[in-house]
Automatic annotation (TrEMBL):
Gene3D superfamilies xref list: Periplasmic binding protein-like II (3.40.190.10), Winged helix-like DNA-binding domain superfamily/Winged helix DNA-binding domain (1.10.10.10)
Annotated Pfam families: HTH_1, LysR_substrate
Keyword set includes Transcription regulation: yes
Keywords on record: DNA-binding, Transcription, Transcription regulation
InterPro entries per record: LysR_HTH_N (IPR000847), LysR_subst-bd (IPR005119), WH-like_DNA-bd_sf (IPR036388), WH_DNA-bd_sf (IPR036390)
Domain called HTH lysR-type: residue spans: 1-32
Native organism: Novosphingobium pentaromativorans US6-1
CDD domains recorded: PBP2_LTTR_aromatics_like
Gene Ontology CC terms, in alphabetical order: protein-DNA complex
GO molecular function, one term: DNA binding
Protein name listed in UniProt: HTH lysR-type domain-containing protein
Record-stated family: Belongs to the LysR transcriptional regulatory family.
Top-level lineage group: Bacteria
Length: 280
């Protein structure tokens, strides 16, 4: 009587390897020590083959992504935590980040370059945009730690107006206009000696002793050496920086919609949006 095909295959394999894989008796069949090692390695090889197949198939397909544009202050607190939560919820979707001034983000969103943008809330935009506030942060003075305000615990705008001042270019930033309006409200104007498009750049210039600037209180989390952050004592028209997430519904991808819903849920949990004065 001929042996079953499986038994024949095992015997051929044993002959090829030169070892016994199965211990056979009338009552049972057991793996030998060599058989156990071979089985484990065979399973490992099959798992690796499955992984190689999946990775190869994935490499031939476009990686799904969500395109997020932002201004620098979004990185201080709100955006990193949102990205962590999104990647945990949707690990297969890549978050592509683009840092731009608010006005440039509006243009990009209108042309479908981004799914969502994090901008200064007061940024000019048409009614077709949807948006909501994601963060409120008090506007504070960033000053050189070893400069004229080294011993101060707060500062007035008329004191800042007597020092070299760093501001974003007005043509790029609604935030620059807000800064100047704050000074106008107390009857003074700053001595603008340097323009800086990004908040991080302005803070670096302050650290170098080139002047003072106004920034969101969230900037304090960066802990830049030789920069001190002081509350402003003037009761002016605008002392809070609001960060908004905006998007154009007609240009949002399905992944973008998922990102929006996650951000909305996060903001709803902490309503009203957190005012981050405590970072000073």
């Amino acid at each position: 009587m001929s042996q079953p095909p499986l038994s024949q295959s095992i015997q051929r394999l044993e002959a090829e390897l030169g070892v016994t894989l199965l211990e056979r008796s009338r009552r049972k069949v057991e793996l030998t020590r060599a058989g156990k090692i071979f089985l484990e390695e065979a399973r490992r090889t099959l798992r690796q083959a499955d992984l190689a197949r999946a990775m190869t198939q994935r490499a031939g397909q476009p990686i799904p992504d969500v395109r997020v544009s932002f201004i620098g202050p979004a990185l201080y607190h709100v955006l990193p935590s949102l990205i962590v939560k999104f990647r945990s919820a949707v690990p297969d979707v890549h978050v592509r980040l683009f840092e731009h001034p608010s006005s440039r983000q509006v243009e990009g969103l209108q042309h479908g370059e981004f799914d969502v943008g994090f901008v200064t809330a007061a940024t000019d935009r048409t009614d077709e945009f949807d948006s909501f506030i994601v963060e409120r942060s008090r506007i504070v003075a960033a000053v050189p730690a070893n400069g004229p305000f080294a011993e101060h615990t707060s500062v007035a705008l008329n004191e800042l107006a007597q020092q070299p001042f760093i501001t974003p270019p007005q043509r790029y930033s609604i935030y620059s206009k807000d800064m100047l309006e704050m000074f106008k409200a107390v009857g003074v104007m700053p001595q603008v000696t340097q323009e800086a498009t990004q908040t991080n750049t302005a803070i670096s210039l302050v650290a170098a002793g080139l002047g003072c600037s106004l920034v969101p209180a969230t900037a304090a989390v960066a802990h830049v050496r030789n920069v001190k952050y002081l509350p402003i004592i003037d009761d002016t028209v605008r002392t809070v920086a609001e960060l908004a997430m905006i998007w154009l519904p007609k240009h949002v991808s399905e992944r973008g919609k998922s990102f929006i819903e996650l951000v909305r849920a996060q903001v709803d949990e902490s309503q009203p949006p957190q005012d981050l004065d405590t970072l000073l």
